[in-house]
User: What shape does this take?
Amino acid sequence: MSTNLQRLLTIMQRLRAPDGCPWDREQTAATIAPHTIEEAYEVADAVERADAQALCDELGDLLFQVVFQAQIASEQGLFDFDGVAAAICRKLIRRHPTLVLEPPATTALPSAGPTPLTASEQVAIWEDIKAAERREHAAVRRDPRPVGHLDDVPRALPALMRAHKLSKRAARVGFDFDTAGDAADKVAEELTEIRALLAANATPAPPAHPRPPAQTAPPAQPGPSAQPGPSARVIEELGDLLFAATNLARKLEVDAEAALRAANAKFERRFRGMEALAAERGTPFESLGLVAQERLWQEMKRSE
Assistant: This one.
């Protein structure tokens, strides 16, 4: 074990000691988990910005989360950091059966397996082994339920990422569109359903010449204006549209999560540019009408 890694483990033990940091001492596996997710996203952000120093720092933060969870588990007699490292070593060796990942005692470096594989072939083997592991884990738990192909897709994943994994698992057993064009047709179908739903729920326009109310009608009583939220059907159909779009991204071999992050960044860049242009011209952006704002948007698009 490297000196710095041992230093990190020692620091973590000190933070959790009875006279250590009060905040660190009161944490549990559950309270730390959201921080772990946040740190993983910060790693992704540093990668997207191609900031090597930030990436080094963020990877350190993420490593600390692993060490933190391992320390909590060690205090409960469950496992320790060495157990975590041993578990991932076993998993990597098990899921790469065609490679020699650990050198024999007489060999200085690992040697390649007898049959080199393509990346797609290795992914297929990896997924097959994962499926076998799910069956083995169910047997160990003596779970009477049949092992499903969607088992162990974490519910805590971001929705787009989980949609990608769910559809990918289903595709492995044949439940998939033949082409990306078919997936695009599904997106169009879901959008058509939403349009139809909106049209059915649209408030009818008032008549051109409304008749005055009858004199016997009681005056309208003032009351709070209700702003009903979207119906359960609208939410369901919109979810179907988003799932279909994610499925299309998978068929195009596009990371939907990364694509949406890029779209967010583009929108933010253009919107900030619109605000800057309006300010340069002496007009607060919020005072502009939609037509004027759209002209600024098109101006920003042309400038890119």
